[in-house]
Amino acid sequence: MPLIDALLPEFDREMGLTRRALEQVPDGTFDWQPHPTSLTLGRLAEHLCDMPYWATLTLAQAGADMHPEQPAGYTAPTSRAAVLAQFDRALKEARGHLLGKTDGEFAAPWKLTTGGKEVFTMPKGTVMRTFVLNHMIHHRGQLVMYLRMLDVPVPSFYGPSADEAF
Asked: Residues with Cβ < 8 Å from 6, sequence gap 6 or more?
């Protein structure tokens, strides 16, 4: 079976679950953080919007720098609607890059650098599973804990949550 046939349903499911979590982010709480060393809720939501963008970088390029400059005119989202719009735009672009990828394209190396120093090089398929999907799931778990601490209902993901039946 081609890798795309296994990866695409997983990609669609995990992106959809992440969007469900982002739908719960309450407006007016973007500056909240559970601890002074933690990301703010707004920055965490914005980082989850980065995950589809990282899929695009992985699939469309041979590598990327970990700390690229934001595009001219970029403003961080400050509302749930803005977060969802940013996520949806990035997801549409990422999925377009994912469609039709061959096993050979997934086997091609991809390099992550920071300030010109190599962090890792691995096959694009591995980057998609670890650096994009698993990374996103990790931060989605953080977001769910933030929501729980703010007494916001948590949606079900892989089974029922305390707030929602499966």
From this structure: none
